[in-house]
Structure formats: C-alpha cells, structure tokens
Specification:
The protein has about 400 residues and is an alpha/beta fold. It folds into two domains: about 130 residues, 3-Layer(aba) Sandwich (Rossmann fold); about 200 residues, 2-Layer Sandwich (Dihydrodipicolinate Reductase, domain 2). The protein has 14 helices and 18 strands. Strands 7, 8, 9, 10, 11, 12, 15, 16 and 18 form a nine-stranded mixed β-sheet that branches. Strand 13 and strand 14 form a beta hairpin. Helix 7 crosses helix 14 and helix 13 crosses helix 14. It is globular and about 55 Å long. The N and C termini lie far apart (about 45 Å). Bound molecules: NADPH dihydro-nicotinamide-adenine-dinucleotide phosphate. NADPH dihydro-nicotinamide-adenine-dinucleotide phosphate binds next to helix 1 and helix 13.
C-alpha cells in the first residue's frame, strides 16, 4: 500500500504517471499540477479511475498542505520545475510525506543550481524520519546510479569520471528544447564547470569540446558543461580526481542559442512591455514548441552513460556503462519523446524502490547513496536497458 502524488503534468509527469499507474505497489495515484486540464488528459489516456487529478500551485506551501492533507500521500514525486523543490519539501515536512525529485533547486532570479539549498533540509527530514531522494531522473539519476554500480562491482577506486549525454534525435524543428525551455536554456548557456584535483575549474560556455563516438550513433561534437550530479558524486566518491559532464549540441542549435542570448531573449530579469511585467525567457518559452509535442516526429536515439577510469586489484581499468533510448519507441509507448521518457522512467522506478522498502532512510539522499542493484535490475524491463563495456577506449 503506497499512495503516490505526482506534481507536474509536463512531458516528464506524463511518463511518471503512466509508469506509477501501471505498478501495483502504488495503491492510489494522484497527478496534480498548475493546469488541471493537463492532468485530466493524462489520467483519461490511462483510463478507468486509476489516476485522480487536482489543481495546485506548488509555489504555495499552504495550498500544497491542503492537498497533502486530503490525499495523504506516502511519497510525493516532484516533476514540476526546480523552482518548486523547496516549497514541496517544506510541505512534505509539514504533512509527513516522503519526497523524490529529478532536478535540484534553482532560484527563479538566478540561473544557478547547487545542492546546498536541499542538503540544508537534512536535519529536518532526519528528525521527522522521512526520506528525501534527490535527482532521480536520468542525468541526474541513472548516471549517478551507474557510478554507484561501477564503484560497487568494478572498481576499488574511481579516478576519472566522464558522463556523456548525446541526443542524436531529430524532431524536424529549426529550434526546440527537449525539456522545459526555460530550465534547459538557463542550464546550457551558463559557464562550463568541472572538477579536478579537489577544485572546480570554470570555463566559458562551450569552451571545451571534442568529438566523441556514441554506440549505434557515431561521432558527435560533445561539449563540457556543468551538470548537477557532479557536485554530489565528487562528494560521495572522494577518490575521484576529475569529473566532467559532456553534452552533444548541433551547430544549428548553438547558433540559435547564441542569437537568443544576443538579442536578450534569454534574460531572466523582468522587463516592462506595454505596461506589463514580463520575463523574456518565460515569454520565449510560450512561443517555442512544447517539448511534449515533439514526440510525434522525433527520430533517432539518445545515448547517455558514464565513462570511468580507475583501479581494481591494483590495476588500471576503463569501463563504459550506458543506455540508448529510441525516440520513436518512447513515443509509441508513452506518447512522449525519449528525453521525457528517460527522465520519467527512473523517477517512477525510484519511487517504487522507496515503496518496496529498498531505498529508505531518514534524511536527504542523492541516488548514489542507495543500493544500485535492485534499481538497475528493473531498469531494463521498465524500458531503459543498459550495456557495459570493459577495458575499451573511452576517448576522454
Ligand atoms: P514541463 O515544463 O513540460 O512540465 C512542468 C510541469 O510543471 C507543467 O505541467 C507545469 O504546469 C507544472 N508547473 C510549473 N510550475 C508549477 C507550479 N508552480 N505549480 C504546479 N505545477 C507547476 O517540464 P518537463 O516535464 O520537461 O520537466 C519536468 C522536470 O523534469 C523539470 O524540473 C526538469 O528540470 C526535470 N528534468 C530532469 C531531467 C533529468 O534527467 N534528471 C531531464 C529532463 C527534465 P503548466 O502545465 O501549467 O505549465
């Protein structure tokens, strides 16, 4: 018996709700979001009365608590936006619910993400005997679980970690983002940052890049960007000497991004337009394609994994663990593209790990702190099979 409340009815929320509804460990399922009609559409597609729906403003703790007190969730799966992480965690503490998310907190007025805000909840979750699971999508999420699996089974010490994220899909649009445009553009336009010898090295945006080969895809130009799981992984695996995150971008995408920045449309500060206050990047989101709508014409694959170098029994080894996900297959199963699919499946599986009592603890946890084995044992059957390669050229 586990009552699950999902917050956020976007692309990711759609996949999470389908996977949670299909899992009998969850006795009661509710999807709540800012726009109730979007929740109703997701629930109607699932059918029957399996999924209840509600309207909620997740920026408002009192409103969240009212909903939590009536539905009484055991676990709240937050797939709204990173801005809502802290209010949802506050409501969980106030009403005694456990918590899971896929992206770390970001303040609206500063394009800056780090775990400190959420790690600061450690004592409060501990005191209440509640579990908060941070970053349980694909990256962050499965990438950290892959690292935990490598550390558990294949290495005595991990020395070099390179997370590689390739989207070789084509949606046929001149420019679109694969998840929430506002969050995505804030993420990819910031300075690059990686960890080396105990320090963070900051680069200009997209300054470091090289072609990398991705399985079943081929060569793609890959760029070092900052990504949040690096922060928790270097803390939880102190033997790491260098940790980087690489993401592929096409030239067309980068050109659009540069123009968007140059003309001020990536600004996150409010401006007055016709007497009304608007935030340019939020306006841009309103005119860009909805990521959820990209699925129908999306072809090709994503390939996300970890390339690791380290020591086992005194010898140096390399290891590559990854998943490839096909946009068309993801769409056929869930009506969403592979980026929503690869995020939603791990979030639903992480919640079921908690519901089964396999991932429990009082406090705030990043996913690599739990046992990776039961999670990875089920990930393939949930639609994200993974592959391991030993002692191969990892290129990084
Ligand atoms: P969408 O923008 O498609 O969906 C977000 C949903 O949250 C929308 O339905 C939106 O409502 C709702 N929402 C926004 N603000 C509020 C609020 N104040 N109260 C209630 N609901 C609200 O985003 P995605 O589905 O693409 O992404 C969801 C999350 O997943 C994001 O946090 C993103 O960063 C994360 N993510 C994580 C990845 C990973 O691998 N770890 C990868 C991709 C995404 P409305 O419909 O009214 O706008």
């Amino acid at each position: 018996m586990c009552r699950a409340l999902i917050i956020g009815a976007g692309g990711v929320g759609t996949v999470v709700t389908q996977k949670v509804a299909a899992n009998p460990i969850f006795s009661d399922v509710m999807l709540a979001s800012r726009t109730k009609s979007k929740c109703d559409a997701v629930a109607a597609a699932i059918g029957g009365d399996r999924v209840k729906t509600a309207q909620v403003d997740a920026d408002n703790v009192a409103e969240l608590c009212e909903l939590f007190r009536s539905f009484k969730p055991d676990i709240v799966i937050n797939v709204a936006l990173p801005y809502q992480d802290l209010t949802i965690m506050d409501a969980c503490l106030e009403c005694g619910a456990n918590y899971l998310d896929t992206a770390n907190y970001e303040p609206k007025d500063e394009a800056h993400f780090e775990y400190s805000w959420q790690w600061a909840y450690q004592d409060r979750f501990k005191e209440k005997g509640l579990t908060a699971i941070l970053g349980c999508g694909f990256d962050p999420g499965v990438t950290a679980i892959f690292t935990a699996y490598a550390a558990k089974h294949h290495f005595d010490e991990i020395h070099y970690l390179d997370i590689v994220d390739c989207n070789a899909g084509n949606h046929g649009k001149a420019f679109a983002t694969n998840f929430n445009p506002e969050i995505n553009i804030r993420e990819v336009t910031q300075k690059g940052r990686y960890y080396e010898n105990g320090k963070w090295v900051v680069t200009e945006p997209h300054e470091i890049h090289k072609p990398l080969h991705y399985p079943e895809i081929g060569e793609r130009e890959s760029y070092v960007i900052y990504h949040e799981e690096l922060e928790s992984l270097v803390k939880n695996y102190p033997t790491i000497k260098r940790a980087r995150f690489w993401m592929t971008f096409g030239q067309e995408y980068l050109t659009h991004l540069r123009v968007i920045q140059d003309i001020g449309m990536a600004r996150i500060d409010p401006i007055i337009y016709n007497g009304v206050e608007i935030v340019p990047i939020q306006f841009l989101k309103a005119v860009l394609p909805d990521p959820k709508s990209l699925g129908a014409n999306y072809h090709g694959k994503t390939s996300i994994g970890c390339r690791i170098r380290g020591i086992k029994d005194g010898k140096e080894h390399t290891y590559y663990i990854y998943n490839n996900c096909d946009h068309e297959k993801a769409y056929a199963e869930t009506g969403t593209q592979a980026v929503s699919f690869t995020t939603g499946v791990p979030a639903a599986l992480g919640a079921s790990m908690w519901a089964k009592g396999l991932w429990r603890g009082a406090g705030v946890f990043n996913v690599e702190e739990f046992d990776p084995d039961p999670f990875l044992a089920e990930l393939g059957e949930q639609g994200l099979p993974w592959v391991e390669k030993f002692d191969v050229d990892i290129e990084v």
